[in-house]
Amino acid sequence: MSLSTYKKKRNFSDTPEPEGKVGKESKKLTFVVQRHHASHLHYDFRLELQGTLKSWAVPKGPSLNPEDKRLAMMVEDHPISYATFEGDIPEGNYGAGHVDVWDHGTYEPVDKNGEVITPAQFAKDLKAGSIKFKMKGRKLKGEFALVNLRKDEKSWLLIKHRDKYATDEPYNSEDYAKKSSLAYTQARNAKKKAPARKTATKKSTAAKAVVKKKSLKKR
To answer: For the whole prediction, is pTM greater than 0.70?
Structure first.
């Protein structure tokens, strides 16, 4: 696996993101979901596989409701060290904005029958465009699937399978976000909505002073 695309998009002298490298295959595969308020708020869904994090941007975030088929846009692989990244990516950098870890844990790759398979077989399934996995996170639990839409190799659907962790209630990832994340979003939205303050130019300020001076002389 390569991190060349990841590295080409970033200036590591100006961003706190980890440069990272391809890691060794772990016995327990990890996952992370990061809430990323860039130009648009979205959730980054990442699965460790063969030394990197396979990554998808999920605009609406994951759901525990099987009826929700969340669009997931596949992006470049990220280094394993990115799984713990939180902070602000400065303006002018790729993905500029605030990042928080929304959920993390381990996962098991499984086949269509729910039986655990090897990472090598999981990688083949990924290439074929359909993967299934059992998640063991704080928020996300049970079996999920990612299915490629075929029309575009980058477009996938993230789907929760029906099991004891599934819900039929409406599910909004924002309801389970960190207070720090929500506070950041509220502050950013307030800044965007605030009316622009007009600053007087030196010329207009001087003109007002002249008018005031003439008015005083008439008195």
So the answer is: yes
